[in-house]
Amino acid sequence: MKRVYAKEDVCAGCKLCEVHCIVAHSEYPGDIIKAFKKGTRPVSRVIVEENRPISFALQCRHCDDAPCTKACITGAMHRDPETGIVTNREERCVGCWTCILACPFGAIRRDETGRKVASKCDLCSKTDGVPVCVANCPNDALIFEDRN
């Protein structure tokens, strides 16, 4: 399965990956101005960790043995059997945050802007192709590949 990997040696900490992630998951995908000015802005599903001189983008690792799926009390956090992508079915999420506690990478966040649900990288699964964070990284600090 393809996953997003960070190359911290070239990450500039610009946070453009966060911006494009917010836009892609907003009510106005593809329109940065509308995504930030209108409607409810979702949280970014990628988190840029900055600890100079090292910066890197952190997102869900879609673990083979995903602890978040085991911790989820409603079954909202689940793995798609066909793609292997771990996603959150927001309509089932009750915002208990046990998935956040279980994630060893700290890649799941609370989205308190709307329904108070868990938010995590879905590899832009609604689009076919490269996740927007990877496609819009100016330094190519994010790569999308299969490392079996």
Can you walk me through this structure?
By secondary structure, the chain is α+β, with helices and mostly antiparallel strands. The protein folds into two domains: 1-59 and 122-148, 2-Layer Sandwich (Alpha-Beta Plaits); 65-120, Alpha-Beta Plaits, CATH 3.30.70. Helix content is 20%, strand content 20%. It is built from five helices and eight strands; from the N terminus they run βααββαββαββαβ. The strands form four sheets. A two-stranded antiparallel sheet has the order 1-8. A hairpin with a 6-residue loop joins strand 4 (77-79) and strand 5 (86-88).
The Rg value, from CA coordinates, equals: 15 Å
Structure classification: alpha+beta
Outline the low-pLDDT stretches: none
Please summarize the sheet with the most strands: 2 strands, antiparallel
Number of separate domains: 2
Strand content: 15-25%
Shape: globular
Secondary structure elements and pairings:
Layout: E1 3-6, H1 16-24, H2 32-37, E2 47-51, E3 54-58, H3 67-71, E4 77-79, E5 86-88, H4 98-102, E6 109-111, E7 117-119, H5 132-135, E8 142-145
Antiparallel strand pairs: 1-8, 2-3, 4-5, 6-7
